[in-house]
């Protein structure tokens, strides 16, 4: 068995690391777990960082598609957001964003959620702009 075969079993994040932060007590819900909304906010930022490189100017989020939360995030976790530009349209940019943490006990990379973020390039007056 080669090293490549062994690596096939290890789940890995898709896309490039766009943003990394630490989950803080202020970001928790009543159960002490991290708010889903906080995670979405981090994902929006990570997706925007990737989309800005393509749009080369003002953008706005127009849609967030197909998000599922797979595992809770605890205070102190290092939260890593990976972004992958999957499609560039006339004015729109689709970015798949994955959130990963390291499992508290095993330290194994664990996927928390993923979603498709759609950004639109805008001109100075807030109208859609053709991406060059
Ligand atoms: C973004 C905005 C300018 C779009 O205006 P619009 O005239 O309706 O634009 P269009 O219908 O021509 O859509 C623009 C692009 O977005 C895409 N788009 C629009 N809604 C979409 C959706 N729900 N899912 C995926 N793509 C979508 C269109 O397919 C189009 O792509 P293309 O130009 O690459 O072909 C307008 O909806 C807006 O200002 N929204 C608020 C954005 C915002 O403030 N976001 C922050 C959240 S508070």
TrEMBL record:
PROSITE patterns: HOTDOG_ACOT (PS51770). Keywords: Hydrolase. This is Acyl-CoA thioesterase. The lineage of its organism: Bacteria, Pseudomonadati, Pseudomonadota, Gammaproteobacteria, Cellvibrionales. CDD domains: BFIT_BACH. Belongs to the acyl coenzyme A hydrolase family. Pfam families: 4HBT (PF03061). Residues 13-125 form the HotDog ACOT-type domain.
């Amino acid at each position: 068995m080669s090293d490549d075969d062994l690596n096939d079993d290890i789940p890995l994040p898709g896309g490039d690391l766009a943003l990394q932060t630490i989950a803080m007590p202020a970001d928790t819900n009543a159960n002490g777990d991290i708010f889903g909304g906080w995670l979405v906010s981090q994902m929006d930022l990570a997706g925007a960082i990737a989309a800005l490189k393509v749009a080369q100017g003002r953008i706005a989020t127009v849609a967030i598609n197909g998000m599922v939360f797979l595992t809770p995030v605890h205070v102190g976790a290092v939260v890593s957001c990976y972004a992958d530009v999957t499609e560039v349209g006339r004015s729109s940019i689709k970015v798949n964003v994955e959130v990963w943490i390291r499992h508290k006990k095993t330290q194994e990379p664990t996927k928390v959620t993923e979603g498709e973020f759609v950004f639109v390039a805008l001109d100075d007056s807030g109208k859609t702009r053709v991406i060059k």
